Amino acid sequence: MTEATKPPLDILLCAPRGFCAGVDRAIQIVELALKKFGAPVYVRHEIVHNRYVVDGLRDKGAVFVEELTEIPDDGQPVVFSAHGVPKSVPENARSRQMFFLDATCPLVSKVHKEAQIHFKREREIVLIGHAGHPEVIGTMGQLPEGSVTLLETVEDALAFTPKDPERLAFITQTTLSIDDTAAIVRVLTERFPSITAPHKEDICYATTNRQEAVKRIAGQVDAMIVVGAPNSSNSQRLREVAEREGCPVSILIQRASDIDWSRLDGIRSVGVTAGASAPEILVEEVIDAFAARYAVKVELVQNAEETIAFNLPRELRLSAAE
Ligand code: 10G
Ligand code: SF4
Predict the structure, then answer these.
(1) What does the pLDDT look like over 237-295, one tens digit per residue?
(2) Is 21-105 in the same CATH topology as 3-19+205-302?
(3) How far is the CA of 237 from the centre of ligand 1 (A)?
(4) How many CA atoms lie within 13 A of 282 on its CB side?
(5) Where does (2E)-4-hydroxy-3-methylbut-2-enyl diphosphate bind (predicted)?
(6) What's CA 120's distance to the chain center, in Å?
């Protein structure tokens, strides 16, 4: 196809998109640990839910495991993923005298602390989140088994019976759908008016900004492409948001080679965004793939500015400065 024969296509590029401050910090922790301590650096669970990131770190000497039992006693560091871990994980690491670096996002740790405070104040805790997700496993694992009840849906909130509605609190996963969570919270506050809510939303700034950016353009485009992994909760939510806003085609892809072009037949405009764990290079790859087939005009739609950055663990601050 020559430039002159390519059909026109408007690309609306969402901003903010891609890496959040917690992901950026977590990846830096693995990279700096490799630099300071050499390979192997063990990482418990995918540091963030992105194959490109994981493969890149593996090439540099990171070894990914699901459990500490898979790690030999060789004195090399182990990094806990950004999603957070149950309390038993650092406890086990300490008992084996392992050297660990915790890449849990500070905004996830904040939710862990809220849970602990509620528990201390003898409140019954409900966690709004998705069963089986590592963040949910990590948050529930901050407290003794049975202290936290997981609610996934409005139906769960309607069916829930607390021990004492006067001593109840809720917390949430950080990457949920803003709208679904609001609906669940509405049911809980209607049924249990004394329920204690987080001081400041548990759904984080990055999740909120990325969903709002998608909402802003989803009604204006013929299709939405979300770059992100199928096991990435926040990326899945972005795809859903576009679909619910009425975007005719909303697709989650890991990278450009996943695009099913037959689903994009006849489109004249497309929105592009990326989940919090998807690197910008994969977004560029997607734009290049469109540019190979269409005469593209790219417009940036900036919905919020993000300036937040988190401190690195003490052990790595010096290496970062070098
Ligand atoms: O969206 P989830 O939680 O599945 O994780 P991710 O690795 O795709 O993105 C970064 C978000 C976290 C580390 C969870 S707070
Ligand atoms: Fe932290 Fe939010 Fe990023 Fe999760 S999505 S790592 S909570 S900033």
Answers:
(1) 999 999 999 999 999 999 999 999 999 999 999 999 999 999 999 999 999 999 999 99
(2) no
(3) 11
(4) 28
(5) 49, 83, 133, 174, 232-234, 277
(6) 28
Taking only the tens place, the pLDDT of each residue in 193-205 is 999 999 999 999 9
What are 172's two structure tokens? 């949430």
* Token code pair at residue 306: 């993000």
Where exactly are the structural domains of the chain?
Answer: 3-19+205-302, 21-105, 107-191
Q: What is the CATH number of domain 3-19+205-302?
A: 3.40.1010.20
Atom of ligand 2 nearest to the CA of 82: 6
Ligand nearest to the CA of 228: 1
Told to judge if 243 belongs to the known catalytic residues of this protein, a careful annotator would answer no
pLDDT in tens, 114-152: 999 999 999 999 999 999 999 999 999 999 999 999 999
Atom of ligand 2 nearest to the CA of 234: 5
DSSP 150: E
Q: What average pLDDT does this structure show over 3-15?
A: 95
What is the pLDDT, as a whole number, of residue 27? 98
- 321: confidence class by pLDDT, cuts 50, 70, 90: confident
Q: State the fold for domain 21-105.
A: Rossmann fold (3.40.50)
Query: In 3D, which of 312, 219, 238, 243 has the Cα closest to residue 278?
Result: 238
Residues 6+ apart with CB under 8 A from 24: 309, 310
Atom of ligand 2 minimally distant from the CA of 174? 7
**pTM for the predicted model, two decimal places:** 0.97
Any ligand 1 atom below 6 A from CB of 22 = yes
Judged by its nearest atom, the ligand closest to the C-alpha of residue 110 is: 2
Instruction: Report the CATH architecture of 107-191.
Output: 3-Layer(aba) Sandwich (3.40)
- How many CA atoms lie less than 13 Å away from 67 in the CB half-sphere? 4
173 lines ligand 1 (CB under 6 A): no
